[in-house]
């Protein structure tokens, strides 16, 4: 007998499940994606004991017929694609046909489903990948999936899970991000008997953000709407004064698919450089719409990352959309232009024309390390002396804006010094200088001898 043998089917299923189902939150993600693909407008998620004892996801989508319900449990069974070319233009969240097979292989799994045209629904019971029962059942239109005793037949997998609190937190994070990404869908999330999240499903992203980020976030978000080279950027970003100490509050969706991508996060933060303090990050819910043929979502079984055919183009367009929104906001705030930092070129990208027209110059290159010809202390006497207007402009342009307080004070940094500027008093001084200059010009005009 040879040394190489085909693996038993149950071992194959366990290996495949390990790629898709890493933890309870993976189950929730896959089931929510299936519900959204089914056209659900209401999704309820219930968990017990951090999802290890029970996960239940209920939706009001189109449901499945008895025949489809039984086939859906098999590996690589899907309604999303039919041929290889379909992988180049995937428009749905799911497409691999692995989720239900993987989940049912490592749990006690029950599926209830019904279409609008069927008189009765269908119940499918699976245990450890083995179908135990397929029978008719009374149930409403849509699909309900119950996952019990997750990893009951894979004890090593349980050992690598984190604490119940961490696992519950990961599930809450998944539900929260889908609620942000799909404001038209009403989400309800229960942990035990406690209702932790409820959204109205009224397509109001700002309302969802205030529910999730808290009432203090109301009025702190800016709308983004930008289109360029066939790519659309939509969503909301926080104003420079509303930041957090981590990137946790940033969510990116590409063609409505929730993804994690460093390039997009970096483009977001580059657009804010010079406007937020080091170690603080803006909040953002951003939606990019791009030709599916320009993306590759078949990167990893969890479908959590994505590849772009031209990643720099995508990053640049996202950067432009955010910069435009920030420019509009700063213009409305009427912040003096010379407090907005010196002009710097973004790597592989010059200043955006709209911003140049407005005189807004953000520092957008590598991490912000201000360099000057002389230390600030050596410039003390020079700054104290009366300067020409160009010298003053150069001084202010090298200042770095840190923020604004109560719409009154501007906080700026220059070298090792921090400046607190009363912007109203500064504006009065500007007006005083202009009036003084005008009076001087008029005096000089009338003092001329006429012969």
TrEMBL record:
The UniProt record lists the keyword DNA repair: yes
InterPro entries documented for this protein: DNA_mismatch_repair_CS, DNA_mismatch_S5_2-like, HATPase_C_sf, MutL/Mlh/PMS, MutL/Mlh/Pms-like, MutL_C, MutL_C_dimsub, MutL_C_sf
GO annotation (BP), single: mismatch repair
Any one Gene Ontology molecular-function term assigned to this protein's record: mismatched DNA binding
Keywords of the record: DNA damage, DNA repair
Source taxon at top rank: Bacteria
Every DNA mismatch repair protein S5 domain range: 208-327
GO cellular component, one term: mismatch repair complex
Stored PANTHER family: DNA MISMATCH REPAIR PROTEIN MLH, PMS, MUTL (PTHR10073), DNA MISMATCH REPAIR PROTEIN MLH1 (PTHR10073:SF12)
Record family assignment: Belongs to the DNA mismatch repair MutL/HexB family.
Protein name, per record: DNA mismatch repair protein MutL
Organism: Syntrophaceticus schinkii
């Amino acid at each position: 007998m040879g040394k190489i043998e085909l693996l038993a089917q149950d071992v194959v299923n366990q290996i495949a499940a390990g790629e898709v189902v890493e933890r309870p939150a993976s189950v929730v993600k896959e089931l929510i994606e299936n519900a959204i693909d089914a056209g659900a407008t209401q999704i309820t998620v219930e968990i017990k004991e951090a999802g290890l004892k029970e996960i239940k996801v209920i939706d009001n989508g189109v449901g499945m017929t008895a025949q489809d319900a039984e086939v859906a449990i098999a590996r690589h069974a899907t309604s999303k694609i039919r041929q290889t070319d379909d992988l180049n233009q995937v428009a749905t969240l799911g497409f691999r046909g692995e989720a239900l097979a993987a989940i049912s292989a490592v749990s006690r799994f029950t599926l209830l489903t019904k279409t609008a045209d069927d008189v009765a629904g269908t119940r499918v019971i699976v245990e450890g990948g083995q179908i135990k029962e397929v029978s008719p059942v009374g149930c409403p239109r849509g699909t309900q999936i119950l996952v019990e005793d997750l990893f009951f037949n894979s004890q090593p997998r349980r050992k690598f899970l984190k604490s119940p609190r961490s696992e519950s937190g990961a599930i809450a994070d998944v539900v929260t991000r889908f609620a942000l990404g799909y404001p038209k869908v009403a989400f309800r999330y229960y942990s035990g008997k406690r209702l932790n999240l409820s959204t109205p499903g009224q397509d109001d992203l700002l309302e969802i953000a205030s529910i999730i980020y808290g009432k203090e976030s109301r009025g702190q978000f800016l709308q983004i709407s930008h289109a360029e080279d066939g790519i659309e950027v939509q969503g909301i970003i926080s104003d420079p004064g509303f930041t957090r100490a981590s990137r946790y509050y940033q969510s990116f969706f590409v063609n409505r698919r929730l993804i994690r991508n460093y390039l997009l996060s970096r483009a977001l933060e580059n657009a804010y450089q010079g406007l937020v303090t080091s170690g603080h990050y803006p909040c953002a819910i951003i939606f990019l719409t791009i030709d599916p043929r320009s993306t590759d979502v078949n990167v990893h079984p969890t479908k959590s990352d994505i590849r772009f055919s031209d990643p720099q183009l995508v990053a640049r367009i996202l950067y432009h959309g955010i910069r435009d929104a920030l420019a509009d906001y700063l213009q409305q705030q009427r912040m003096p232009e010379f407090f907005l930092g010196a002009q710097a070129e973004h790597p592989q990208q010059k200043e955006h024309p709209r911003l140049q027209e407005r005189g807004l110059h953000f520092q957008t290159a590598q991490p912000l390390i201000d360099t000057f010809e002389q230390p600030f202390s050596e410039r003390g006497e020079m700054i104290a002396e009366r300067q020409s207007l160009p010298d003053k402009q150069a001084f202010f342009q090298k200042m770095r804006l840190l923020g604004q307080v109560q719409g009154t004070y501007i906080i700026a940094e220059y070298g090792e010094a921090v400046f607190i500027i009363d912007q109203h008093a500064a504006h009065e001084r500007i007006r005083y200088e202009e009036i003084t200059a005008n009076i001087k010009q008029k005096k000089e005009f009338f003092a001329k001898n006429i012969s």
